[in-house]
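User: I'm putting together notes for a lab meeting next week and I want to include a structural view of one of the chains we've been expressing. I don't have a solved structure, so I'd like a prediction I can at least talk through. The sequence is below, exactly as it appears in our construct file.
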Amino acid sequence: MADSIRYIMVGGFLGAGKTTTLARLAGMYREQGLNVGIVTNDQADDLVDTGLLRSLGFNVEEVAGACFCCSFNELMDQMQNLSADKRPDVILAEPVGSCTDLVATVIQPLKHLFEREFEIAPYSVILKPSHGKKILSAKSTTGFSPKAEYILKKQLEEADLILINRCDELSTPEADELEQLLATNFPGTPVLRGSATEGTGFEAIAEFLDQRGEFGRKILDIDYDVYAEGEAELGWLNCSVRLSAEAEFDLDKFLVDIVEEIRQELLTNGAEPAHLKTIGLWEGFFGVANLISSDTDVRLSLPSHQKAKVADIVVNARVACDPELLEQIVKKVLEHQARQIDAALEYRQLQSFRPGRPVPTHRYVTAKNS
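Assistant: Thanks for the context. Below is the predicted structure for the 370-residue chain, given as structure tokens.
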């Protein structure tokens, strides 16, 4: 139908680069004159992703407190909110990075219940090279249990397209090895390479996503006990603070120092980060630093190039450890880094927990034709 909204969902494990990918795609669609809406998703409020995308000028709504599959009705409400001012031509959706079985619980319900309103694009899943290579080759420890690794494999299994992201950080032989591992584990699934940070490969990615046809049909054979236990092994933390200093401080250095000190604390405690990211915002400028695994460097993924006396800092951490330990580490680091610049620290919000068992609103066992 000509006036249907194009629904493009981009999945992938924690730290795969979903937000940067959505921002890149949204920018491309906006340049084409399309009205773009974005829906982010998390198990808790106060997302770095939402703040980042809004800071880039995009129309963003958030489903917080549960994954899309368990909050399907809220997903529909938030997509309706995106239409309040101007109906989107395209909606980009970013599910929780520890969530899978999205074809049966999100795409198929959209097709069955709202087929006149939405046109479903190919479901793409991003491969995170650092953990993906270890998990798919099964040659070395990943820092995650087999149950947590099960989630990443199931995410890739239901994809119409697998995108190897962060190719700017890989040599050609490394990317070739990843592509071969994917061909062995998921034969027949198309694979594309790209870098969301640099934009390389995105013309081919956008061209693939623009296809019409029978997509979003790979309904998983999945063990929800294993899935739930794997997800529950991750500690989640969302924290926001306001930092107030007498003298100006370098915001980008502060963000990197936070993430690096947390990385060191996690290493000391033998805790593997799935993803750790922090954003600093104040009066129209912002910076972002992140970490995607214990054996990669901290990355200033979006520099602010600003000095400030006041800034709002948001930390999102997803780590294979007890959430109480994670909270202790993050608070210790924030307070230490604030002392380093003689700044007062005011906690605005702090949540740490393990995700509960996923209970989908809908789950379809057969795929509907488009």
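A couple of points you could mention at the meeting. The radius of gyration is 20 Å. The mean pLDDT is 93.

User: Perfect, that's what I needed.
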